[in-house]
Amino acid sequence: MTKILLIDVGNTFGKLVLYDFDTSSYSNLIRISLKNVQKQVETILESSTTVSTVLVSSTVPASYVEVKNATSKFHKVKTIKLDHTIILKRLPRFSVAYDVNKLGSDRLIVAAGAFTFMNDSKLNAEGGFEASIVVDAGTAVNVEVILRDKGYIGGSISPGFRLMKEALCSGTAQLPSGADSEVRAPPLVGTCTLECIASGVYSAVCGGVYDVVSRICCHGPLKDFNHVRVILTGGDCGCLLKHLKGNLESNVPNVKSVTSEPLYVLKSMQSIFAIPLPSS
Fold this sequence. Notes:
Helix content is 38%, strand content 26%. The chain is of the alpha/beta class.
């Protein structure tokens, strides 16, 4: 059995998963801090001798170097960084509205993944989606807008839950940062300072995403589209799903589906890489 190791390195954490070509299945999902990426890659390659390729998406150059250092010990393993050159070669119909070199690889990958899904007659047969919005909630919250007939048209970037909390606490004299890094829905009305901070941050992030998605669909570039899919991914997508799914599907007429897909970046990487290069 031939496998590929998919690695998505963000600003705070890395995600690793094995994909089996023979069974079309994913296994051994691992989420780790950046300092442990190199060691974890070595451990996986030592125990999984059928891995032929390591496919990497990285927003942190130093982490990609560490992955390369790890894979260099395994001579039969090929390491590929999934960048705009590879993506555009495999998806010649996929266009980007502005200079692709100024677009982070993680954002380009989720946009290309949504484009691939919408143009697959088997995957998109039931929904018939004409456009997608991908919300990647991690250190930052990236919102990407993709059209089935064109490709990536733009998006927005805002602070994520932890980054917003850190900025609030570091920019004030007496607000405590607190030790709890887990993101979950807090009380709407806090009864202590930490609860008040958590309530404000949660409302700001969730409300901000709802606002930008609803305005894109009702007044922005997707106002004339009837079937829009919203995909939530990233480490904090679960919290967003609780707040957004019912509100968007009930209040924004052209949003027909809101789903949470924690592995969306990794699955997009695999789906892009599986597309054969066009013959020259």
